[in-house]
Write a sequence for this structure.
């Protein structure tokens, strides 16, 4: 029983619309096509595009594209840009965008303006601001990375010097061992007490020298084992410097736009004006119906 009034009301609304369907269609058409026409006569804009290469050190960006976007959406930054352009902050925010390209390695800047010169001015200003920030962030990170390579190369040089020193020490010790062995061999048949003491001394020196040689050989093996790992790390960092590191810069320069465009979404506007047309058509039909009933009464 509760749904009956609703059904009656719906039936009444449909009957009223059908009775005045020609007027409803006319109103809808007027609103819809006037809206679309208005879309095409709105002031046109120009757009300039510039692509920047973001700073990267050892495959790591000095700043993520999300952090960059957040910065340029902040009120303080928008006010700063607006002051330089002489525009209200809301207008500035609507007239540029920052988009990621190639997984954040590049950033695309779109600047829009009422004239080609204004579009270029906005694009170049945003580009300059981003590059300036990227260079400030990139330099200390790159310097730290270069310092790591220099430290590794110095360590490699130091290990190389130690290897050379150990090899010379081992050669000297081998010469001493050969000498002591020769002296002991010469006195193998020693009969006197003095000769016996000399032999004992040479034997003691021979044992100590062999021990020193063995220790030097072990140290040399440690250095020789560490050196390839160090060289590999240096090679990896040099490769990263060449292929996985990029200073910030302009990848594609913006050029003066020649063609303008309509800065709206046509499909979105069509949907909006279609809904508005339907609404106004229904309102018009009910007003007309009510007016006619009032006159009849």
């Amino acid at each position: 029983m509760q749904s009956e009034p609703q059904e009656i009301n719906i039936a009444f609304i449909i009957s009223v619309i059908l009775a005045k369907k020609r007027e409803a269609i006319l109103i809808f058409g007027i609103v819809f096509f006037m809206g679309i026409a208005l879309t095409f006569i709105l002031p046109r804009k120009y757009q300039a595009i510039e692509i920047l290469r973001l700073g990267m050190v050892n495959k790591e960006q000095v700043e993520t594209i999300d952090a960059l976007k957040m910065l340029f959406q902040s009120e303080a930054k928008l006010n700063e840009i607006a002051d330089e352009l002489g525009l209200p902050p809301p207008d500035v925010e609507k007239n540029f965008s920052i988009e990621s390209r190639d997984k954040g390695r590049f950033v695309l800047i779109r600047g829009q303006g009422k004239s080609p010169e204004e579009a270029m001015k906005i694009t170049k200003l945003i580009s300059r601001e981003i590059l300036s920030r990227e260079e400030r962030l990139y330099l200390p990170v790159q310097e730290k990375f270069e310092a790591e390579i220099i430290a590794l190369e110095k360590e490699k040089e130091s290990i190389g010097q130690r290897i050379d020193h150990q090899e010379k020490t081992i050669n000297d010790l081998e010469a001493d061992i050969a000498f002591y062995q020769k002296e002991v061999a010469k006195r193998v048949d020693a009969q006197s007490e003095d000769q016996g003491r000399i032999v004992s001394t040479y034997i003691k020196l021979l044992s100590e020298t062999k021990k020193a040689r063995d220790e030097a050989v072990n140290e040399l093996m440690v250095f020789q084992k560490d050196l390839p790992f160090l060289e590999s790390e240096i090679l990896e960092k040099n490769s990263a410097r060449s292929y996985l590191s990029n200073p910030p810069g302009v990848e594609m320069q913006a050029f003066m736009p020649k063609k303008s465009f309509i800065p709206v979404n046509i499909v979105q506007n069509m949907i909006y004006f279609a809904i508005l047309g339907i609404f106004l058509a229904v309102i018009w039909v009910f007003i007309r119906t009510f007016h006619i009933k009032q006159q009849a009464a």
Q: What stands out?
A: Residues 143-243 form a domain with the Helix Hairpins fold (CATH 1.10.287). The longest strand covers residues 45-53. The radius of gyration is 43 Å. The chain is about 75% helix and 10% strand.
